[in-house]
């Protein structure tokens, strides 16, 4: 067993010792200088395929392994820059985007990256029609027309055509999303099985051109990345990144303090201050466009009643959680657009009022209260939040039975609309307000076999009129008018929806002080390891 393996084995033993109360734990050395070791909760990963990734942890993985056509500046999201694209132009009618592809990029396989690879990647995502495909199909792309609408006219030129005129920045922001990750067409096509577009292969393998290469993924256990020494932007300073799924914040903290991991991602608020006094550790805060919320499935006839939906909004002790569980991890935010987005509404009309919640339940025909099950990811702070909501709701006449499970199980159940209530996070897919409006305020088809499956669909909220308003907002090219339209949408969702949006996340990361160069952006897919080094 090599040195690194011994350290990881020791760390695993340490974790086991904490779990089972063993009296002795090994004393471990610092991690190797050429390796970044991270403790994180990534049990939500379902797949590593950029055409299917739709979870926060998967999105962060994709950002390390796959280049995209374009990206945005993490310090100023209004600035969009080319990554695989060297430059681009937009036609006078705003419907044709022509990209010049950067020369000299190679995939991890050694194959050259061309416009054909970019076109195939986007075509593939549309034809597979997995969760994130709607980011592309909203521009009128279908499996039948995508080969004509998204095409390479030569090895360095990509043409992307939309069905009508949209705000140009909206189209460009969508092309910064995870689903635009460029895959090695030659490699992926060679791995196709029964017309699956190589999905079975990419579920646990990589075919990118980014600064890191996937070496191993064990669900809810280990994610191992190796540096791409031939990366066109410059080789990473570290040779590998090892990410361990550590569910317990207390275990993460102990591993960090002992030097067995370089980064801890899921600490609790009460752990921050003691660590600030440790000169070997720094605390980093990164505001995210990520919301904590819970949804109520409208297939349930009790939860479908408007007064019951509103009762839940008065059954949450927002301020109490903000001062304890979420202290430093997030701020109270009840509208579906995070702060920083065009048209974001900074109004929080709901406060904890159990008497009002009880009255609303009585008006709905439930004077003795109701009982509901809530699915929740078995990690921090989700479980702490769920238990707090369980307690505050009980005083409001709502009995909540919690059903904890790992993230993969929870999200799979959610996508099948088999929950009653479910607590989860939602992260913006791109830096345009439509990213959240299209999921919280639109549901074009509420059938079980619908093609588009936004959060409104997952909660069976049938909203044809609101869907029309959302579609109109994305076509408005005047920024001020567009912002006003989104504010109106947010107020209607606040009033009538089955969503109880509670907090906007601040990611708090604890790093060993010898770690430099990690980038913590406004979304999980703008967290970057490429420039990390260790003194």
Structure commentary:
The protein has 535 residues and is an alpha+beta fold. Helices cover 32% and strands 22% of the residues. The chain contains 19 helices and 19 strands. It has helices at residues 3-20, 56-65, 115-128, 134-137, 146-149, 168-174, 185-190, 199-202, 249-258, 269-276, 306-313, 318-323, 354-363, 382-394, 407-415, 434-440, 455-458, 464-475, 479-496; strands at 35-40, 70-73, 76-82, 85-90, 96-101, 150-154, 157-161, 212-218, 222-227, 240-245, 263-264, 281-296, 330-332, 370-377, 398-405, 421-427, 499-512, 515-516, 533-534. Strands 1, 8, 9, 10, 11, 12, 13, 14, 15, 16 and 17 form an eleven-stranded mixed β-sheet that branches. A hairpin with a 3-residue loop joins β8 and β9 (222-227). α11 (306-313) packs antiparallel against α13 (354-363) and α18 runs antiparallel to α19 (479-496). It is globular. The two termini are 26 Å apart. It is found in: Periplasm. Residues 1-29 form the signal peptide. This is ABC transporter substrate-binding protein.
Task: Describe the protein's topology.
Layout: H1 3-20, E1 35-40, H2 56-65, E2 70-73, E3 76-82, E4 85-90, E5 96-101, H3 115-128, H4 134-137, H5 146-149, E6 150-154, E7 157-161, H6 168-174, H7 185-190, H8 199-202, E8 212-218, E9 222-227, E10 240-245, H9 249-258, E11 263-264, H10 269-276, E12 281-296, H11 306-313, H12 318-323, E13 330-332, H13 354-363, E14 370-377, H14 382-394, E15 398-405, H15 407-415, E16 421-427, H16 434-440, H17 455-458, H18 464-475, H19 479-496, E17 499-512, E18 515-516, E19 533-534
Parallel strand pairs: 1-10, 1-11, 14-15, 14-16
Antiparallel strand pairs: 2-3, 4-5, 5-7, 6-7, 8-9, 9-10, 11-17, 12-16, 12-17, 13-17, 18-19
């Amino acid at each position: 067993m090599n040195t690194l393996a011994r350290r990881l084995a020791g760390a695993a033993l340490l974790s086991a010792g904490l779990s089972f109360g063993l009296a002795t734990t090994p004393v471990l050395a610092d991690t190797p200088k050429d390796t970044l070791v991270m403790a994180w909760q990534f049990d939500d990963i379902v797949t590593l395929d950029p055409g299917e990734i739709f979870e926060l942890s998967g999105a962060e993985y994709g950002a390390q392994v796959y280049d995209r056509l374009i990206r945005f500046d993490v310090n100023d999201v209004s600035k969009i820059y080319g990554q695989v694209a060297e430059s681009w132009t937009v036609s006078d009618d705003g419907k044709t985007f022509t990209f010049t592809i950067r020369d000299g990029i190679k995939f991890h396989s050694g194959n050259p990256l061309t416009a054909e690879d970019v076109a195939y990647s986007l075509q593939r995502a549309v034809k597979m029609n997995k969760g994130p495909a709607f980011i592309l199909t909203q521009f009128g792309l279908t499996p039948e027309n995508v080969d004509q609408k998204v095409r390479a006219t030569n090895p360095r030129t990509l043409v992307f055509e939309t069905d009508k005129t949209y705000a140009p920045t909206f189209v460009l922001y969508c092309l910064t999303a995870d689903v635009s990750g460029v895959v090695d067409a030659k490699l992926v096509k060679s791995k196709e099985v029964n017309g699956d577009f190589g999905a079975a292969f990419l579920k646990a393998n990589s075919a990118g051109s980014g600064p890191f290469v996937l070496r191993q993924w064990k669900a809810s256990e280990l994610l191992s990345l190796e540096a791409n020494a031939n990366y066109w932007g410059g080789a990473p300073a570290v040779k590998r990144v090892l990410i361990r799924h550590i569910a317990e914040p207390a275990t993460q903290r102990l591993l960090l303090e002992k030097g067995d991991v370089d980064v801890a991602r899921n600490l609790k608020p009460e752990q921050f201050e003691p660590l600030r006094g440790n000169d070997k550790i720094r605390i980093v805060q990164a505001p995210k466009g990520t919301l904590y919320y819970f949804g109520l499935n409208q297939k349930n006839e009790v939860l479908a009643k408007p007064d019951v939906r509103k009762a839940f909004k008065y059954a949450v002790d927002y301020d109490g959680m903000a001062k304890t569980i979420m202290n430093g991890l997030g701020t109270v935010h009840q509208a579906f657009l995070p702060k920083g987005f065009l048209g974001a509404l900074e109004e929080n009309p709901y406060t904890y009022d159990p008497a009002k919640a009880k009255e609303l339940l009585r008006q709905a025909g439930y004077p003795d209260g109701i009982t509901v099950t809530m699915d929740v990811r078995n990690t921090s702070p989700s479980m702490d939040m769920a238990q707090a909501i369980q307690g505050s709701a009980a005083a409001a006449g709502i009995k909540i039975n919690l059903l904890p499970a790992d993230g993969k199980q929870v999200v799979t159940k959610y996508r099948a609309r088999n929950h009653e209530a479910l607590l989860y996070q939602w992260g913006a897919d791109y830096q345009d307000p439509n990213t959240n409006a299209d999921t919280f305020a639109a549901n074009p088809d509420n059938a079980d076999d619908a093609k588009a499956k936004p959060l409104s669909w997952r909660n069976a909220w049938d909203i044809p009129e609101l869907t029309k308003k959302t579609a109109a907002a994305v076509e408005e090219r005047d920024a001020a008018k567009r912002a006003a339209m989104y504010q109106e949408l947010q107020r209607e969702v606040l009033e009538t929806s089955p969503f109880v949006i509670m907090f906007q996340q601040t990611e708090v990361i604890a790093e060993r002080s010898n770690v430099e160069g990690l980038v913590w952006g406004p979304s999980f897919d703008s967290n970057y390891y490429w420039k990390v080094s260790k003194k």
